[in-house]
Every structure is written in structure tokens, then in C-alpha cells.
Amino acid sequence: MSFIPSSAPLLFFDSGIGGLSVLKAVQAALPNAPIVFAADYAGLPYGTKTEAEISARVPALLGRLVERYQPRLVAIACNTACTIALTHVRAALDVPVVGTVPAIKPAAEATQSGVIGLLGTAATVRQSYVDKLYADHAPDMTLLRHAAPELVSAAEAKIRGEPVDPAVYVRAMAGLMDQPDGASLDTVVLGCTHFPLIEDELRAAAPHVEFVDGAAGIARRINHLTKDQTWPVDPEEGTFVTTGPVARLNTLLPALSGFVLTRVRSL
Fold first, then answer.
1. How far apart are CA 104 and CA 117, in angstroms?
2. Which of 76, 148, 161, 203 has the fewest Cβ atoms within 10 Å of its own Cβ atom?
3. In whole angstroms, what is the distance from residue 12 CA to residue 74 CA?
4. Considering Cα of 204, then 216, then 263, then 57, what sign does the dihedral take?
């Protein structure tokens, strides 16, 4: 393995700020890791884009980001981007790439009723990748799927300190519970990294349901891949990069400071 300087960052990529739910778990495990978090606000939302658009856009953006910031590892903290473009990204980059996929395996291990739900973007819930996860890890169970694009906007609004109509969360959960076998639903996969940011609100809408996501597993994977590497002695300021206008981030700055993402840049 070639020498990796302690200053080399972990690069996180998402369409917006959903990946902060993954970053939180990683920072708990690696508190001194330098961080670059890139949000493709010019492309948000990903859930309404075609597979061809995402397959072209994500590797191109990550190529520019890797060239600029020279990370030791890339974490694609976006389920939609991963289920569509992960293979393309790994082929295009010469650094380790960790992906985010719907946590169907842990949901299958947690359920008591055998009925699990998947909340995600429209692009994620229709992917054959999800079919394979289901076939591999929960073939004898019932998987209910619901596309809840409103939740992406709700999570973005919450992080900015803006009000959100609670009916948004009720509608999302009803999209699962109103399906056949929905009355037996006891475990829901949060299949978009934005959704753990509003888990409390979803739980209030469905108190009997347990929610699972993949953040802890990603943190373990990153910790494993970097276990022999060196880190700065003290935590450093992190960098937040956006593909959209920096001025749009003003209402996000208080939340970003909680993740030590105090330097804001445009790509």
C-alpha cells in the first residue's frame, strides 16, 4: 500500500445533506479523521432522475472531487447513487469506494412478523439491486416498498430549521401500512440517507415500528479499510463542498458546524 499522509481526508458524497447521518456514525468511530463532504445540490433530487443521468453524473463529479481533494477513501452516502452508479464509480476511481445500500439484511434479522418495509426514493425502490438484496437476505419474508420523495425535502427543511407539516410523515408510513400485509409491518428500512435525520418524526407517526439504516455498517467498513492508517493528532476543520450556489447554504451553516464542517466551498 502506498503512503497515505495523515492529512488525507475521507470524502463523503451525497445529493444533499442526507449523508450527514452516515458521517455522524463515522465521526463517532474516527473522531480525528479529516472530512470533505460534497453535496450535489445542483443535481438534487436524485430520486426523480433516470438511471442514465445518475450513471453519467456521479462518476464525473467524483472524479473531479478526487482530483481536487486527494482522499484516502470515498464514501457514497446516497442509496440512489449507489444502487445505480456504484460499479461505474469503482471503475473510474483509483481509491477505495464504500457504498450505501438499503439495510434489508439487518431488517430481516430484526423483524418478528416477517413483514418489512422499505422507504426510499422512486429511483431506489425500483432497482434490481433491491430485488437481489431481498432474494439474498429475506426470501421467505414480505417486503413492502414505498417511494417517499417528500421525506427528502422534509429532512433538508428540518436541518435548515424550517417547519415541516407532520402529515408528511404520516403519509409516508401509510404508504407502507396501507398495502396488503401492512398491518403486520414491524421493521422499516430507511433506504435513503436523508431519512435517519427524521427518524424521530417517522417513529411518532408509527410508534410500533422499528427503523434500521446502514450507517453503522458503513462506519465499521471504513474503520476496517483504514485500520492501519494514521490520522491527525487532533480533529481538524472539515470542508463542505456544493455543486450549487454557496449562498444557498447559509441556513445550513449551524447544522454543518455540529459536524465540524466549517469551510464551505463550491465545486
1. 9
2. 161
3. 6
4. negative
- Amino acid letter, 199: E
Maximum Cα–Cα distance across the chain: 55
Burial of 170 (0-12, 13-18, 19+ CB in 10 A): middle
Catalytic residue ranges? 78, 192
pTM score over 0.90: yes
End-to-end CA distance of the chain: 29
User: How many helices and strands, by DSSP H and E, does the chain display?
Assistant: 11, 10
- Phi, psi at residue 171, to the nearest 5°? -65, -40
**Using one digit for the tens of pLDDT, what is the confidence trace for 196-234?**
999 999 999 999 999 999 999 999 999 999 999 999 999
Residue among 221, 256, 207 nearest 41 (CA): 256
Give DSSP secondary structure letters for 124-174.
Answer: HHT-HHHHHHHHHH-TTSEEEEEE-THHHHHHHHHHTT----THHHHHHHH
